[in-house]
Design a protein that fits this description.
The chain is of the alpha/beta class. It has three helices and 25 strands. 15% of the residues lie in helices and 30% in strands. Bound molecules: coenzyme A.
């Protein structure tokens, strides 16, 4: 069976899980990963190719697809557009153990980890992480480069802004908006709208940082 060739960008903890998800779906051929930090010679059985300067050569050799596997939302955004600019096409990494409604809409460059559930009429935009065991209920809108961390639960009609991070095991009640590049702490209960560029924690969630850099 012909499988399209994919390069993974990143070699950290998030990349380990993304590689596992793509391998378990068995739809693509992973040619290797690139990284800027010192690396082992392979990660989960795929080879280290060098830093991103190798990318134009890979393209010439017929590797057309990529997945940016870094958990840092700001860096992931930058790399996502750099790779598209170079001429690569993003793939989605969908675990066979996730449940995605046929009425949900997915963008490009998205990972959906094992045990995640995306319900009807949810919209997940480009380069978003839907992490392990998280729940995205009906009519949610997740904007580009956001990260819904493991076990986070979003009720119906929640909007998550660009680059926002929703921490592990947090809960968000229906119709809440979380502003762009904001952070929701692990275990928080979000019961009112969160403005952009802030950090909220606790039950109920309260602001602890009033001005985040994009992260
Ligand atoms: C919210 C968070 C980003 C804050 O990190 P930070 O900016 O480094 O903040 P600090 O650790 O300095 O904590 C600041 C204060 O908030 C409190 N706090 C931090 N995180 C909290 C949380 N999740 N719930 C309740 N209180 C929290 C701290 O106890 C501290 O309180 P104090 O000032 O009274 O001592 C971080 O604690 C967090 O929850 N991250 C989520 C991690 C996660 O989900 N990872 C998933 C990876 S896939």
């Amino acid at each position: 069976m012909h499988r399209n060739k994919v390069v993974i960008i990143g070699g950290g903890g998030h990349a380990k899980v993304v590689i596992d998800v793509i391998q378990s779906a068995d739809t693509y051929e992973l040619v290797g990963f690139t990284s800027h930090s010192d690396q082992e010679s392979n990660l989960s059985g795929i080879p280290y190719l060098g830093d991103d300067s190798i990318l134009p050569t890979l393209l010439e050799e017929g590797v057309q697809y990529f997945f940016v596997a870094t958990g840092n939302n700001r860096l992931r955004k930058k790399l996502f557009y750099q790779l598209i600019e170079l001429g690569f096409t993003p793939i989605n990494a969908i675990s066979p153990f996730a449940r995605i409604s046929p009425f949900a809409k997915l963008g490009r460059g998205i990972v959906v980890m094992p045990g995640a559930v995306i319900n009807a009429y949810a919209v997940i935009e480009d380069n978003v992480i839907i992490n392990t065991l998280s729940g995205i209920d009906h009519d949610c809108l997740i904007k580009p480069h956001a990260h819904i961390a493991p076990g986070a639960s979003l009720a119906g009609c929640v909007n998550v802004g660009e680059g926002a991070f929703v921490g592990m095991k947090s809960s968000v009640i229906p119709e809440i908006s979380i502003g762009e590049w904001s952070v929701v702490g692990a275990g928080a209960a979000v019961i009112s709208d969160v403005p952009s560029y802030v950090t909220v924690v606790g039950v109920p969630a309260k602001k602890i940082i009033v001005r985040n850099e994009e992260r």
